Amino acid sequence: MSSEVVTAAPGLEFEEPILTIEGRIRELERLGPANETVEEELRQLRRQWTDETRRIYGQLNPWQIVQVSRHKDRPYTRDYLNLAFDEFVELHGDKFYGDDRAMLTGFAKLDQQKVMVVGHQKGRTYKERSACHFGCAHPEGYRKAMGKMKMAEKYGLPIICFIDTPGAYPGVGAEQRGQAQVIAESMYLMSQLRTPIICVVIGEGGSGGALGIGVGDRIAMLQYSYYSVISPEGCAGILWKSHQFAPKAAEALRFTSAHLQGFGVVDDVLEEPLGGAHRDHHQMASRMKHYLTRTLAQLREIPADDLVQQRYEKFRQMGRFLEADTAAT
Amino acid sequence: MAIVERNDQAETKSKVFKRREIPAGLWIKCGGCQATIYSKEAQKLLNVCPKCQYHFYVSAQERLEQVLDAGTFEEWDNHLRPTDPLKFADKKSYAERLVAEQERTGMTDAAMTGCGMIRARRVAIGVTDSAFIMGSMGSVVGERLARLVERATEQKLPLIIVSGSGGGARMHEGILSLMQMAKVSAALSRYREAGGLFISVLTNPTMGGVAASFASLGDLVFAEPKALIGFAGPRTIKATIKIELPPGFQTSEFLLEHGYIDRIVERSKLKSEIARAIDYCGW
After folding, report:
1. Residue A112 pLDDT > 50
2. Whole-model pTM?
């Protein structure tokens, strides 16, 4: 998959040196059966590619990480379903209003283990993207997710949530149909479900829209994903009065996987293939599968009462504050 | 049930407080009907415009005085203080902003919680104050509310939370603010399991992460008239869908029409409405 993906990818600015080398490699490969000189050049170029990619990806700043997390070739929920799972039986609809394409739900098999998958879907082609509202779910999406999660609890299926959204959809219909209400209810529900829940931020963890399917026993993040209270653009617009300050806001918000692990919000960080998950879907999916299988095996050992209690305590301890001496106040 | 003694400290604080929207002047302009009104008259009506019933801002302290029986409020967890875990700075550092807001409002953070009596019924009560960094929820607001809910569960008290939060989850504490939504919602979920009665009162404004967590989770949801209530800010929506928003969009009346709140309650009737609901639910 990697070579096709790279061909299609419009480069991120900081990836320019990597893309140049990749272009040269493809050119030489196209020339067909190579002589000794060409072979040698290819070997050199490949070494250069590794060095450059390692150098560039070793020092990505938060704003560049946001660009990677939004890369149009980044693996989406649907890609993980295809590559890491043995089967996916999509279940549509919220039984109330509609079928939100920004939220993908259904039965899936992970190494013969039956699970329920709930995930944001961004869509790859323009048509898909507009059908999915670029991964911004409406209230019906969260209602659909809640319905399937309740069902998973009833039939003893663990739940796997893939988080990848710029945020819940901001629109008139979304407000009319209770966007705030459904996100609140979904967190409320997830905190009580008597079945294991693993949440993985695979790209963008945009605010309430992400947290709406983000209450679980284990919270994981891909190395170059972000998870934030507000988008860097939104934050810049409010505090710096211009979207142009998004890189600054990205820095200030401390929302990369490394920061979030430090804050005790994220349990595990999944390392991405060299040059980001968009360069190698197969490798990323295989790491994902390994992580999910291992974590599910651990969670299945925990009795339901303890699981729910531990999940409560996990979120209960989040936050940083000072306890002033009571006598002094 | 013991009548709790008045919290003297809290009383001093309200005097220091500078009221927003009700400036010191004798005459003020109503944000609803633009009429010039005599400020004393509005104050007598609990900060409501005598001409158009527009509900002005009231501080958390004033709200508690309006809703609770005189002298019954006992504040909880006032010893919690916000900190600056991200070392966040925009044009001003968050640490400096906190000090400035604390001095300006006389509050330690955007929520006050505790217990008190409503017409001789003991309740657990929390109020968020939109004057303190837009009433946004950071770690202290989340922790105070979570402790409030947990105590209400233990002590089997009806729970009232009056929200006034234009800011939603507080940006300056990043992801930790977002997680407060899950924390408080999880606590409420346990409160409901235990058979609790939660009355959520929405006031102008209740937006973003606050609307999308505890404020929407009441067994009963009341709203003051004409309050701005919603998930996404109107400007964000306008920028996304690029059409004019319908008149009255995201107001209390809009939410009532679409089925998300139980009652619109005028400020002067809030106390009696809460007491009556508690009675109906057999508490």
Report:
1. yes
2. 0.92
Is the CB of B91 less than 8 angstroms away from the CB of A239?
yes
Of B79, B168, B185, the CB nearest to A187: B185
Distance from CA of B38 to the nearest CA of A (A): 34
HEC string for B144-157? HHHHHHHHHHHCCC
Q: Would you call B218 an interface residue with chain A, using a CB distance cutoff of 8 Å? A: no
Query: Please, which residues 235-274 of chain B have a Cβ atom closer than 8 Å to chain A?
Result: 236-237, 240-241, 245-246, 249-250, 254, 258-260
The answer to whether the beta carbons of residues A163 and B182 sit under 8 Å apart is no
Cβ contact, residue pair B212, A179, below 8 Å: yes
Helices (H), A59-163: 62-69, 77-84, 126-131, 139-154
pLDDT digit string, tens, across residues B187-238: 999 999 999 999 999 999 999 999 999 999 999 999 999 999 999 999 889 8
> Tokens standing for A7?
């061909």
Per-residue exposure over A141-169, b if at least 16 CB sit within 10 Å of its own CB, e if not: bbbbbbbbbeebbeeebbbbbbbbbbbbb
The residue in chain A having the minimum alpha-carbon distance to the alpha carbon of residue B242 is A171
Q: What is the pLDDT of residues A269-283, one digit of tens each?
A: 999 999 999 999 999
Q: Which tokens belong to B263?
A: 């009652």
Q: Tell me if residue A165 falls in helix, strand or coil.
A: strand
CA atoms of A317 and A252, how far apart (whole Å): 23
Find where tokens 């979120």 sit. A315
User: What is residue B245's three-state secondary structure?
Assistant: coil
Per CATH, which fold does B57-280 belong to? 2-enoyl-CoA Hydratase; Chain A, domain 1 (3.90.226)
Mutate which: A136, A149, A175, vs B, most B CBs within 10 A: A175
Chain B residues 86-105 with CB within 8 Å of chain A: 86, 88-91
Q: Is A43 helix (H, G, I), strand (E, B) or coil?
A: helix
What's the complex ipTM? 0.94
What is the dihedral angle through the alpha carbons of A307, A308, A313, A318, rounded to the nearest 10 degrees? 100
How would you classify the pairing of strands A197-206 and B74-76?
unpaired
The token duo for A156 is 């003893």
